[in-house]
Design goal:
- There is one protein chain.
- By secondary structure, the protein is α+β, with helices and mostly antiparallel strands.
- The chain is built from 3 helices and 12 strands.
- It has a domain of 103 residues: Umud Fragment, subunit A, CATH 2.10.109.
- The strands form 2 sheets. Strands 1, 2, 3, 4, 9, 10, 11 and 12 form an 8-stranded antiparallel beta sheet that branches. It has a 4-stranded antiparallel beta sheet with strand order 7-6-5-8, with no helix packed on it.
- Strand 5 and strand 6 form a beta hairpin.
- It is elongated and about 85 Å long.
- 26% of the residues are buried.
């Protein structure tokens, strides 16, 4: 026969309760950290559509650095960014920053000029170039001019205007899927 102190009792119940409380604290901490990371740090996104081809393809998976523009720097010409669509902020787009506040943007027969200097855009194949004209237009303070790399198939600042800085979610840092085309931007 076992002594009365062995088996379930107040000491064992106390240990179970202590273990449950420790697990709850761990789960709560993980939820808080995950919320902070997603809110201020990084976000996983998916490309929908061909507007950034050939740089990004439909259904590519991205990691967007939200921290970069909140605390470190402002978006720069050439950055690929995720932004809220100015006409419906419930939607988000991925585009390339073409011009910053104070810049003058002009497009002549599809060739982009920023401050009367032709943009270096060899990443846009000839079949993706448009032959549209735009501007000249000065980018207002606190705004950006963005375009897709597939100029013939992109809804962008040429159509819906400049993007306020507060609508830029973050900088696209990594394409992680599909794995064979993974790269850091």
């Amino acid at each position: 026969m076992l002594p009365a102190s062995v088996g379930p009792g107040p000491v064992r119940t106390w240990h179970i309760r202590e273990e449950v409380v420790a697990w709850l604290k761990t789960l709560l901490s993980a939820a808080v950290y995950a919320t902070l990371i997603v809110t201020f740090g990084f976000q996983v996104a998916r490309v929908e559509g061909q507007s950034m081809a050939p740089t990004l393809a439909d259904q590519d998976r991205l990691i967007v650095n939200k921290f970069a523009y909140r605390f470190l720097a402002d978006p720069r010409r050439g950055d690929i960014v995720m932004l809220y669509y100015p006409l419906d902020p419930n939607k988000s787009f991925v585009k390339r920053v073409i011009a910053e506040e104070g810049d003058v943007v002009r497009i002549v027969d599809g060739k982009v000029y920023v401050n009367d200097t032709p943009m270096h855009d060899d990443f846009v194949p000839p079949e993706f170039r448009s032959h549209d004209d735009y501007g000249p237009s000065v980018v207002p303070e606190g705004y950006y001019f963005v375009m897709g790399d597939h100029r013939n198939n992109s809804s962008d600042s040429r159509h819906w205007g400049m993007v306020p800085k507060k609508y830029i979610i973050g900088k696209v840092q990594v394409r992680w899927w599909p794995v064979p085309t993974a790269r850091i931007f």
